[in-house]
Design goal:
The protein is 15% helix and 24% strand. It is α+β, with helices and mostly antiparallel strands and 105 residues long. The protein has a 5-stranded mixed beta sheet with strand order 2-1-5-3-4, covered by helices on one side. It comes from Flavobacterium fluviale.
């Protein structure tokens, strides 16, 4: 089953992406699959913040882990709604999620 996720890129363009829930992907990998400008330098280990995004609507996300929290405490352009895309697995619960990519460093 796929879920619909909307992602606003750094130019303000909104992309409506079909995200598969059966491939163990995360938001960072989804962005890369659709060729959105997300680095993912650390390969999804919550060590670089190059996949930082802002959550724009009220969709239940998994709790933020210690590694993600620590990385965001050191990252640039962090807001109260910041998350690392690599730490958000794609599940059916994400249907309708709206995100915005954080600025590049």
């Amino acid at each position: 089953m796929d879920v619909l996720i909307k992602i606003k890129d750094r130019e303000g363009v909104i992309h409506e992406l079909q995200a598969p829930t059966d491939m163990a992907m995360n938001i960072m990998e989804l962005c890369k699959a659709y060729e959105l400008p997300v680095e993912g330098t650390c390969g999804g280990m919550a060590m670089c913040a190059s996949c930082q995004c802002y959550v724009l609507n009220d969709v239940a996300l998994p709790e933020m882990g210690d590694e993600e929290e620590a990385m965001l405490s050191e990252a640039f352009y962090v807001k109260s709604n910041s998350r690392l895309g690599c730490q958000i697995p794609i599940t059916e619960d994400l249907e309708g999620l709206e995100l915005e990519l954080a600025p590049e460093y």
